[in-house]
Design brief:
With 190 residues, the chain is α+β, with helices and mostly antiparallel strands. Helices cover 34% and strands 26% of the residues. Strands 11-10-9-8-7-6-12 form a seven-stranded antiparallel sheet. The longest helix is centred in the first third of the chain and has 24 residues. 26% of the residues are buried. InterPro entries: Syd, Syd_sf.
């Protein structure tokens, strides 16, 4: 039987590939990002212009120092749901836009090891806020097209929810991340 984290990892790779293919179909080249010498990434894939580079999602699983949430779990004295750990340690990528029946969203990913460290700090802050508000712990992984609304994973159940920042989740979207990701379609803008 396939372990859920392997299935989730395959789903993430497939979704990233689908996004890049849709972008290439529309624009004839890889996605483009503004150059920033202070923010390197394994996603960079050559120069597009004097001000921009091509980029594409790349596997974070085969790097020499694998990404880990051990330090976050120790700091919070909390075990993070395996799906959220798999989600954020599978790919390096720029965020990209997708749609589903419930609206448009932007999936968040670490761009590099340095960005992964920043992501960990943001997750710690989010969990501490949830504890302060005496709410169940959720971990964000996407932004919606509505201000202050995020998509998060319930840390106990692995369910995917919509929540307004600072409030308890209010709309369940899927029983797990793999199921949720299978509902998404890339959105490519001009």
């Amino acid at each position: 039987m396939t372990r859920p984290d392997n299935e989730l990892s395959r789903q993430l790779h497939a979704l990233a590939s689908s996004f890049v293919s849709a972008f290439q179909d529309k624009h004839g080249h890889l996605p483009v990002i503004e150059k920033d010498e202070e923010w390197p990434s394994p996603c960079l894939a050559g120069e597009y212009s004097a001000d921009a580079n091509f980029w594409q999602p790349t596997s974070a699983e085969s790097t020499e120092s694998p990404l880990s949430f051990d330090n976050v779990e120790q700091a919070l004295e909390l075990s993070l749901h395996p799906d959220i750990k798999t989600y954020f340690t599978t790919l390096y990528s720029e965020s990209f836009d997708l749609s589903c029946d419930d609206g448009n969203l932007t999936l968040l990913f670490p761009w590099s090891e340095a960005d992964f460290a920043r992501l960990q700090e943001n997750i710690i802050g989010h969990v501490l806020m949830k504890r302060k508000l005496k709410q169940d712990v959720t971990i964000f992984f996407a932004l919606t097209d509505q201000d202050d609304f995020i998509l998060s994973l319930d840390n106990q159940t692995g369910e995917v929810w919509v929540e307004q920042v600072g409030k308890a989740p209010h709309k369940k979207l899927a029983d797990n991340l793999t199921e949720f990701l299978s509902q998404l379609t890339p959105m490519i803008y001009d």
